[in-house]
Design goal:
heterodimer; A: five-stranded antiparallel β-sheet; 11 strands; globular; B: alpha+beta; two-stranded parallel sheet; two-stranded antiparallel ribbon; 4 strands
Chain lengths: ~210, ~90
């Protein structure tokens, strides 16, 4: 049976999370990849959604030089809500995203079977493996999921009222004098059609919908 | 390094990243077919909110999963299992 938090409970849980974050100096569940000078050298570009991400912020035009992210368009997940996920709040909504086939869909905390908790326990390492230059794996995951859902190149209905989305994501490196296309991945995102929830999301060399 | 063999709601039970050749190209057609067939059965009988359609169905699919893991090893694919759905 799932637990629902009353508003006052949610407030005090959030205060507890803040206290933990202050005490530990960061978000324990989000990992920060090592970067010698903390400067981004990679950026990702979703060619179908026309949106990019450099590990810090998003941009909507393919950059001629080094991308200048729009400061108001951060893809960050709210650490308070992520903290609520850690406390077992299954139905806390981390984000509402627009999808091509299912309208607005939610990324909730979920549990071991689906949602943010499932993605973190099963695929955090996969997301990190594709982006050693990005600081926070779940901000990158969230940016990717948003782009894939909005502009997929594969969209397929599956058993048990699920829909599978995939779209290419290109990675560029600008550490050298010229820009280099490093690789293209094809992340997979699974959505529950009837519940309008994101079940899972993971990167892969090839789409995994069909 | 062994690859994680697991149900991931997609059509293929591996997350393949990096420069390694596709697993489908390094195993027999029969095993690749059986892996895809197992995934389809998981899609049909496992629901992310309610679990397996019945305990018996779950036991059968889990047994099949472990056999597939051994068959992968026999064909040279070092893998680790992850029964997160159980």
């Amino acid at each position: 049976m799932q637990r629902k938090f009353r508003p006052e409970e949610k407030f005090w849980l959030a205060m507890g999370v803040v206290a933990i974050l202050v005490a530990t100096g960061g978000i324990a569940t989000q990992s920060i990849a090592s970067q010698p000078n903390d400067e981004p050298t990679w950026f990702a570009w979703a060619p179908l959604a026309h949106v990019g991400f450099d590990g810090y912020g998003v941009f909507t035009e393919f950059p001629k030089g080094w991308p200048a992210p729009q400061p108001t368009a951060t893809p960050n997940l709210d650490p308070i809500n992520v903290g609520l996920c850690n406390l077992g709040s299954k139905d806390t909504v981390l984000a509402v995203l627009r999808s091509k086939g299912d309208g607005k869909v939610r990324l909730t905390c979920g549990n071991a079977n689906g949602g943010y908790i499932h993605i973190r326990s099963g695929h955090q390492a996969d997301w990190q493996a594709t982006t050693p230059a990005f600081r926070l794996w779940d901000d990158y995951m969230f940016w990717t999921v948003a782009g894939v859902l909005r502009a997929p190149d594969v969209m397929q209905v599956q058993e048990n009222m699920k829909r599978c989305y995939s779209a290419p994501i290109n990675f560029y490196d600008e550490t050298r004098a010229k820009r280099v296309l490093l690789k293209t991945i094809h992340p997979t995102v699974i959505v529950s059609i009837n519940n309008k929830r994101i079940v899972t999301a993971y990167p892969s060399n090839r789409q995994s919908c069909s | 390094m062994p690859i994680r063999f697991s149900y991931n709601y997609g059509s293929w039970p591996f997350v393949e990243l990096g420069d390694l050749p596709p697993i489908a190209e390094s195993i027999s057609d029969e095993l690749a077919h059986d892996l895809r067939a197992w995934v389809k059965k998981m899609d049909k009988f496992f629901d992310y909110e309610t679990g397996f359609a019945s305990p018996e169905v779950g036991q059968g699919l889990n047994a099949e999963y472990l056999v597939l893991s051994e068959r992968l090893k026999a064909e040279g694919v070092d893998n680790v299992t992850d029964l997160w759905w159980s």
